[in-house]
Amino acid sequence: MERTALVRSLSCSSLACNRFLFSAPKHSRSFLSKSPSAAARYHRRVFSNRSILRRNSWRSLPLAASSHSSSLRFGFNNRHFGSLSVRAVASPPKDIAGAGDEVAEKLGFEKVSEEFIGECKSKAVLFKHKRTGAEFMSVSNDDENKVFGIVFRTPPKDSTGIPHILEHSVLCGSRKYPLKEPFVELLKGSLHTFLNAFTYPDRTCYPVASTNAKDFYNLVDVYLDAVFFPKCIEDFQTFQQEGWHYELNDPSEDITYKGVVFNEMKGVYSQPDNLLGRTAQQALFPDNTYGVDSGGDPLVIPKLTFEEFKEFHRKYYHPSNARIWFYGDDDPNERLRILSEYLDLFDASKAPSESKIEPQKLFSEPVRIVEKYPAGEGGDLKKKHMVCLNWLLSDKPLDLQTELTLGFLDHLMLGTPASPLRKVLLESGLGDAIIGGGVEDELLQPQFSIGLKGVSDEDIPKVEELIMSSLRKLAEEGFDMEAVEASMNTIEFSLRENNTGSFPRGLSLMLRSIGKWIYDMDPFEPLKYEKPLADLKSRIAEEGSKAVFSPLIEKFILNNPHCVTIEMQPDPEKASRDEAAEKENLEKVKASMTEEDLAELARATQELKLKQETPDPPEALRCVPSLSLHDIPKEPIRIPTEVGDINGVKVLQHDLFTNDVLYTEVVFDMSSLKQELLPLVPLFCQSLLEMGSKDLTFVQLNQLIGRKTGGISVYPFTSSIRGKEDPSSHMIVRGKSMAGRADDLFNLINCVLQEVQFTDQQRFKQFVSQSKARMENRLRGGGHGIAAARMSAKLNVAGWISEQMGGVSYLEFLQALEEKVDNDWAGISSSLEEIRKSLLSREGCLVNMTADGKNLSDSEKFVSKFLDLLPSKPLVERSSWSARLPSNNEAIVIPTQVNYVGKAANLYDKGYQLSGSAYVISNHISNTWLWERVRVSGGAYGGFCNFDTHSGVFNFLSYRDPNLLKTLDIYDGTGDFLRKLEVDDDTLTKAIIGTISDVDAYQLPDAKGYSSLLRYLLGVKEEERQRRREEILSTSLKDFKEFADTIDAVKDNGVTVAVASPDDVEAANKERSDFFQVKRAL
Ligand SMILES: [Zn+2]
């Protein structure tokens, strides 16, 4: 997902957390998996992946499972292909009903065109609303995960972040739903499978999804009312809260800036990769709307006025400027009825011509830009430069065939660690990790970018030269047949599988279609890939791959003068200089104010706070439609699981329809591993896949995996088990292939596990520097995850192990390891061998398989053969991993403008007995108390709590938070909040339904099988799930009150970890004498 995280603005990539979840990822790029994150790259309204973070918590299992499937090696989710197919949706299409033409006509719509799209087994009809010109795609099929989306073209003309602030604000109350945040009510109390909003550089997108029809239409109505009739255009305070405002609590204090988007963007601008991506985009498009930041530059956001804000809504949030999408198995006529109710209230406007995106003309000369980014003081600054080459490929949009071929070329050059451009850059030793996202075609004109970070000052010209010479070489020599075949198989596999992870398939199709539709092109065309793919295949077969790809490299890159080279220099003073400048600016503002002004500002600050903290009246809350408890199934979703035995090894089988794909996990017990080897495990996993064997170089091994399977990944998994001293600690090998290739799949898993040799010192060294770069990135962009891991490491053994393999301790380990690779490679190599010896044994093995019954039984013989080859050895005793980190309060100091603040304690230590009500309560705390205090009035982008029911650790976390100690006070107030809480039945029902919506999260078959495996490993039985569900459904106010004393354990005995800016930590330590022990990490 993260191709764009590397380049652009990904404000909160779920991958950041995803990666944290599964410890070290295999490689730092994922040019492939664009579709599910297509939207994630830009700005989302909420930091919605908080549940993904809850690694070990009760509900994270489904999410973890599905989100993993979008990880790099796993699957080709390239937008070019991946989002196109819904083949695996279900059995053959029934007679799919389309909207009746008469109904459409009567409701004021005109049918523009209609097609059956075989690729997604859908009937798609494009309508135009006659009165306003609103366009509407009605896609009908048998997918129960229904999707609605409305998209407006919203090109900004400056970097004040209007589109982004508007995206946040329209969901803060509307005509029919006049409460503070209907969005939050939906988040709390609906069965949505997706709910968010995104801002792109030129459009704003409001999607919802649900499998429950009644729930679905509720969501649609709230969204339609929100975009067309929001309160925010009359309500200055919403603008202040979501956008920016001056805050002054007392005239004697300093004025500060507050605002949710303001802080979200400060966080974005604290990340060097994001800064680089923004600089590149703006430099590539100096003359059109992409030359400014739609998300908002923190320096420019405070220039935005309320008038401009209102005008932007009036102009662009109009049906004439809207594109609307419905998808799924609901009644197409109902869709028309719903829309006409809204659209008929408007007349046509000039918006479509005013919002048109003008193309950027091509340069005649290349451009070079040098920028500074905020760096820490530690480490060798000389080696922290970044350099990236960027091309604008064309002065107009490309045709689909060319785009598809470019996507293929992108995969060939950069798609896997074995891809030539990627390989040569990493092997050069000139930098730590790849930056730049390869081909990017989500905007009007396609781009290509590639570069390195962790580069020495003097090596920058060498990197540029290496990129150019490698591209020239590829154009001259072409690609290996094996590589082309591997890419082709990966792409075709992905098409058939159509695995969008936790992202609804209908949404991924919508984003694909919108990518062209938004520019007035055909919305059907991007959904149809069969013919262009077949054409591409036959061209490659007839003319050879060189004839197909070389001209593209030459035309679009080598002979293209529209090239922007960006060099980013580390500047250890930048963060504090920026902060000082902001402070000075605010002091000037204050100095210019009269005493009355200041009193007025303090009064306005109070008024806003009061408004934010006053709950909505019950009658307002009741107007948000909600399901009743009768609509909720009484039983948990059961996953078919058969526990059997092959050659004495436990085998779990899940008979599910997977469209002929076999998914498998081979699990090895890690508990006998020596403690000091734990931090090496992630690198061990990477070595298995990227080191090569006696007979195969790593390139050959990778190509073989690409040609024969849908991907193999290896990673450690650790969690506490409730009621047990010892944690669950395993290495999981995950693989998938067409069922007919099960033999190849298990042979390759065997090869990876047994035949790979740990001999390549140079490659290992690259793994270390890549991992280090990744950890540093995670620290800046996902500090909440780092804080959570650190707190767990202080509270339990499983947490300690995970932190050794993915937290600050791991980063420290990597820093030390870099030198050791040079001095003691033999030692490291034999440690890797020792890990293999310790893990690989039939006795400690477990196999999990998901496919339909026949494919499962057909695969058994290959499993059996695979197990025969595993060494057998008596179970050794568990290693005693009794380690924990000291339980002091820590501040991990990094160069940033925003903080991540955490506090946690183990509730089981205080004698708490788990009940399902705890899920409802912690959900409610997140959605009300923390949302209102940490986000709405505190100005952080996110604030939430998690309860890991396996370990008992309850933690509070904030995300991109301007505060530090204040946030801790809010956490400490949670017990009192619960004690004073009054909830009516309605609110309680919503809290329960919202919790069920998490528990019943929508899953594709592979995720179901994986969840079932994790439950097995963690000893969660069906009876328990049933009991928890009953407890959730019968949660009462009394449970909330009782939980108050339990949660006070965090206040009284909790441990605090913050990832924060040096200035804020220093101030905090002054205020509360040396509260934090300071640790410098970057
Ligand atoms: Zn946002």
Automatic annotation (TrEMBL):
It comes from Hibiscus sabdariffa. Gene3D superfamilies: Metalloenzyme, LuxS/M16 peptidase-like. PANTHER family: PRESEQUENCE PROTEASE, PRESEQUENCE PROTEASE, MITOCHONDRIAL. It comes from the Eukaryota. Residues 568-817 form the Peptidase M16C associated domain. This is Peptidase M16C associated domain-containing protein. Pfam families: M16C_assoc, Peptidase_M16, Peptidase_M16_C, PreP_C.
